[in-house]
Amino acid sequence: MNINNSVKLYQPSERDPYFKVKFKANGKWITRKRKTETAARELVDQVNQAILRGESRLATLTSSEKERLNAALALLPEGKNLLQLVLESTEAMKLLPAGHSLGEAVKFYSRFNATIEPLNFTDLVDQFSKSKEADWSRPHAIAQTNRLNRLKEAFHCKVSDLTPQHIEVFLAQFEQAKPKTRNHFKALIKQLLCFAVELDALPTLKPFNIVLKLEKAKVSTPEIISPEQFEQYLKNAPIELIPALALGGFAGLRPEEINKLTWGDYLKSEDKIPMSADITKTSLVRFVPKKAALKYWLAKVPNRTGKMLTISTTQKNKLVKNLKKLFGGPIGKASQGRDLFRHCYVSYRFGECQRTSVVADETGHSESVLKSSYLKLVSEEEAAKWFSLHGRGYLNWSV
Q: What is the residue range of 83's domain?
């Protein structure tokens, strides 16, 4: 018996003269028989390749089933999706009286119903994207656009024809993914359907509430770095990287907010950074205190005009990664996205003031989000070290 990727090959026996190939697909064990070992091993290779491509269900099809599938694909009208047509046909047949065909029902409907051209799902996505252009940051827009394109590929139908079953089928492909992935799609689909209701393309969102209910996800606390590590980052970073480090670690700004901030914004006030609605992710104004460490390090930047961050996101990420390799810091999955220094600010600021309401006001988070995922508990002493990285406090060096 050979085992490879859950595919098993059994030799013939006295009771059964055939070679048997057994494999697991869609949670069930499937058995296929072949007369020769060569044919059996070819089937093993085919099944393995299907499993690697995530197409284990296709491997369960018999030859006749594959022929019928190919015939169905050949008959598909241009621009139509086979799964979509199957779902629509199944739902329609449930409603039809016995003995009536779907074709007859369509002819009857066309004859007796004057129709207004309904909105295609693809057009809904395009209108929705256009309405969000000004609200989304560039990284968020890229992520949302990728998700929207997947939705456009999945739903080739009128918005009014969309059902909860369609959404369930779409989400089934993410069964093995983390709840966070499914929640991203659920939240986006809900936004789309709310937009459709506003456009009168859909009467109500109520039928979709259950399938779009968000799942509880296990929250992991983001990793942070120590004051001693951050000191080495600051002392060894090229001058063009200092704004990204200082504004993240000593002011808690998001990377996309730092990209928008200008020296004019920063220099408007001696004690606070006024974050206008066109800078913040939430489009809500907030004011961030200028800590002594922030002033100290930003004072070292010679050119104080125009954008505060003058390097590209790719270049910035590469420089930060080099610092992590030299002095330690979360890399890869452990890095929890692009907000390492913001995570640090949240944790050390809470360690300093012990009030989530204060930290929430400064960072633009809700208190519940801070308590559930952002707070990495640190001592008051560690917090004091962090915000004393300005040459006159806990750490004293010459720069």
A: 76-112
Widest distance between CA atoms in the chain: 90
Confirm if 292 and 393 have CB atoms less than 8 A apart: yes
- How high is the pLDDT of residue 177? 83
**What are 76-131's pLDDT values in tens digits?**
777 777 777 778 788 777 877 777 777 777 766 655 454 446 899 999 999 999 99
Instruction: For the beta carbon of residue 56, count every other beta carbon within 10 angstroms.
Output: 20
Ranges of residues in the chain whose predicted pLDDT is under 50: 1-4, 112, 114-116, 393-399
Q: Which of 112, 135, 167 is a domain's end point? A: 112
Query: For residue 226, which of 331, 72, 329, 301 has the smallest C-alpha distance?
Result: 329
Q: Are 181 and 174 in contact (CB under 8 A)?
A: yes
For residue 275, how many other CB atoms are within 10 A of its CB? 23
Is residue 289, in this structure, part of any structural domain at all?
Answer: yes
The letter for the amino acid at 112 is F
Q: Is residue 220 part of a domain?
A: no
Residue 207, CA atoms < 13 Å, CB-side half-sphere: 14
Q: Do 144 and 178 meet the contact criterion of CB atoms below 8 Å apart?
A: no
Does the pTM surpass 0.85? The reply is: no
Domain count of the chain?
Answer: 4
Q: What pLDDT score was predicted for residue 236?
A: 95
Q: What is the pLDDT of residue 230?
A: 96
CA gap 333, 145 in Å, rounded: 23
The DSSP H or E segment spanning 44 is: helix 37-52
Give me the pLDDT at residue 288, please.
94
Contact 297, 251 (CB under 8 A): no
CB–CB of 166/87 below 8 Å?
yes
Q: Cα 100 vs. chain centroid, distance in angstroms? A: 45
CA distance 155 to 62: 28
* Residue 196, amino acid: A
Tell whether 204 and 238 lie within a shared domain.
Answer: no
